[in-house]
Amino acid sequence: MSASVVYSKLALSDLEYIWSFLTIDCDNANAAERTINGVLDDLERLAILPESGTPLDYRCIIHSDYRFIVSGNYLAFYLFEDGIVHIVRVLDGRSDYLRKLLGTSSSAIDLYL
After folding, report:
1. Which of 22, 36, 55, 88 has its CA 20 to 30 A from that of 45?
2. CATH fold for the domain made of 4-110
3. pLDDT 10s digits, 29-67
4. How far is C-alpha 73 from the geometric centre of its chain's CA atoms?
C-alpha cells in the first residue's frame, strides 16, 4: 500500500525560494531544475516507504514526530499520519534549520546527540 504525499504551504514556499535563489541569485536555471526535480523525486519516494526518513529525535533532544530525508544540500521534514506523508518544510542543511522548523529559541536545540 502506498501513502499519499501532500505539501504544506511552507514547504511549497521553501521550494519556490530554492528555485528563485538558484535561478536568479546564482544565475543557474539548470542547477535550479536539477535541484528541485531531485528533491521532488526523493519526496515522492516517501509514498512507497513513508517511514524511511530519519527521526528528528536522532538530531536533537527536543521530542517531535518529525522525520527527515536528505536531498543534496537540503533537508525535507515531514510527518507520517494516517497513510499521509505531510511535507512540512524543505530547508538548506547548512542553515539554522532546527530553529526554522521548530520555531523556538530554546537552547535545547543546540544540544545534539
Report:
1. 22
2. YaeB-like fold (3.30.2310)
3. 999 999 999 999 999 999 999 999 999 988 778 788 999
4. 10
